[in-house]
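call fold(seq) -> C-alpha cells
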Amino acid sequence: MNRNMYFDKRALLEPENMLLMYAQGAFPMADEYGEIEWYQPRTRAIIPLDSFNIPRSLKQFMKSSNFSYKYDNDFESVIRTCAYRETTWISEELVTAYDGLINLGCLHTVEVYDSDKLVGGLYGVNFRGAFFGESMFSIVPQASKCALVKLLERLVEKEFKVLDVQFITEHLKMFGAIEIPFSQFKVMLNGAYQKNVVF
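ret:
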C-alpha cells in the first residue's frame, strides 16, 4: 500500500471498504491513542491448511475436556474479550467498525465454553477462500488453542485455501505457522479468491 496516497481513514472503516482492504492483504490496528492505521508487512505469517500440526498433547486434552464449541454465537463478547488487556490494538472505533463486517456476514468467531461460560475464542474476517485471523483469547488454560483447532477443522471442511495469522509467534509455530514474503502471500490470496466458500 502506497503511504503517499491519500486515504480517508474514516471511510476505510465502512464495511465494504474494510473488506476490500482485507482482500488486498491489509489489516487495521489502533495505536495507543486510538488512531487506526492499515498495515501490509513485508512478510506474512500463515498456517498452511494442507500441512498444519495439532500437538499430540492438545489432541489428548480436547478428548478429555468438558469444553463445548460454537461458531458465530456471541460476536461482541469474543471481540471485547480479545480487546480486554493492558495494551490493545482493538479500539472502540474498531469494535464498532467490525459490526459492519458482521452484518455483511464476513466476520466470524470460534467460541469455547465450559459449563456455558465463555472461556476462550477467536475471531477473523473471511473473503471468499481466505480467512484473516485477527485475535484470540483464553481465560482458562488451552482454551485459545482449542479454538484454533476448531477453526482449522472448519476451514478445511469448508475448503478454504488460506489462513492468515499476520505475525509469527511461538504459540502459532506449534500449529505449523510459517512466514512467507508478501509477494507470495498475494499470489496465494489471488488463488483463494477463485474459491467462493462459506464459513
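The CA atoms of residues 9 and 65 lie 44 Å apart.
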